[in-house]
Amino acid sequence: MQREAHNTMDMLEVEYQFRATPERVFDAWLDPKTAGEWLFATPKGEMLEVSIDPVKGGKWRIVERRRGEDILHTGEYTRIERPIILGFTFAVPQQDERSVHVSIEIEPTPGGCLLMLGHDVMPEDKERSIEGWLKILKALDRELRY
């Protein structure tokens, strides 16, 4: 009898409260100049490329040089409803050829907005991915304050 291995994904969920309008937070994900300052950017990395086609079916691509290696983050937009919903696929080919789906919902709140992010991850990657997204959202928060 042959057995098949099935990889089941978990849904990671992260919430972050911003002191910026939903429009400013939403637009920061789709503007190449702004996104290059915070999205997948590391303190010691050098941003080489940020290309974003902000339409459903449009592709996005971010390349950052880290310790001499060019790291590609890439995907395709699956849903864009400004300023409340953003969906996209996400892959880092150097780490894993598979792509996963990320969904973002933004709700207005008094004095800002609440961003809720969902991301399909392998169970063993869940904690590391939560930490990664929180760092990214904190970087976005810092970017929006300037």
From TrEMBL:
Record InterPro entries? ASHA1/2-like_C, START-like_dom_sf
Q: Which Pfam families match?
A: AHSA1 (PF08327)
Q: What is this protein called?
A: Uncharacterized protein YndB with AHSA1/START domain
Q: Which residues form the Activator of Hsp90 ATPase homologue 1/2-like C-terminal domain?
A: 20-144
CDD domains reported in the protein's UniProt record: SRPBCC_CalC_Aha1-like (cd07814)
Highest taxon of source: Bacteria
Family note: Belongs to the AHA1 family.
Gene3D superfamilies, A to Z: 3.30.530.20
